[in-house]
Amino acid sequence: MGLFKRNPAKQLVKNGDVEGLLALATSDDEATRAAALNALPILIEAMSPEQRATVHDLARSGLADANCDVRAQALFALWETEGGDAIGSLIEGLRDPDAGVRTMVAAMLGGGDPTVACDPLIATLSDEAPVVRQMAVESLATLGDPRAEAPLNKLASDDPDGMVRSAARKAVAQLGTG
């Protein structure tokens, strides 16, 4: 086997093969399932209502997958196909055991509705992983909700990680000028 693994989902997207992607999303191979879940939203406009329902079901079942990449891509598929209707799943994703999943969710919430996303992101400022805290900071800055200013000020002075403190200072400045 070569250094780089072939991604069959890419070719299926190129061919517009929705059924092929749906089949890949049920593969025994975790990387294949994750790639299919990542690719399915690209073809959502070409799908029948039944196929869209299948994507929804596959993404929902992917939230409970043992593999963190599959869970992350399931959340991505929900966000891309359902938008605001997926917000509850995203907020739940902030409690995922994997920091990578939590980071991705924090990034996605930065593109959401501030009235819904702000409080969960503020709560994420106490996450054990600095990368998750930093992404929550950046998302809060993007949302521009003034409720984030006091928690970000505290983080700017008290966080044990220098990158998080720096990001928090920038976010506070952005909120003050936004």
Task: Describe what is shown at a glance.
The protein is mainly alpha-helical and 178 residues long. It has helices spanning 8-15, 18-24, 30-39, 49-62, 68-82, 87-93, 99-109, 114-124, 130-143, 149-158, 162-177. The protein has two domains: 1-82, no CATH class; 94-178, Leucine-rich Repeat Variant (Alpha Horseshoe), CATH 1.25.10.
Note down, in words, how this protein is organized.
The protein is an all-alpha fold and 178 residues long. The protein has 2 domains: 1-82, no CATH class; 94-178, Leucine-rich Repeat Variant. It is 69% helix and 0% strand. It has helices at 8-15, 18-24, 30-39, 49-62, 68-82, 87-93, 99-109, 114-124, 130-143, 149-158, 162-177. Helix 4 runs antiparallel to helix 5. The longest helix has 16 residues, at 162-177. The mean pLDDT is 94.
Mean pLDDT: 94
Strands, count:
0
Radius of gyration (Å): 18 Å
CATH superfamily of the largest domain: Leucine-rich Repeat Variant
- Give the low-confidence spans: none
Specify the CATH class of the largest domain. Answer: Mainly Alpha
Strand content: under 5%
Tell me the count of domains: 2
Reported for the largest beta sheet, the result is:
none
Oligomer designation: single chain
Terminal-residue CA separation: 51 Å
**Helix and strand pattern:** HHHHHHHHHHH
Q: What would the principal axes of the Cα set say about the shape?
A: elongated
Instruction: State the helicity in percent bands.
Output: 55-70%
CATH topology of the largest domain: Leucine-rich Repeat Variant
SS-based class: mainly alpha
Count, helices: 11
Question: What's the architecture of the largest domain, going by CATH?
Answer: Alpha Horseshoe
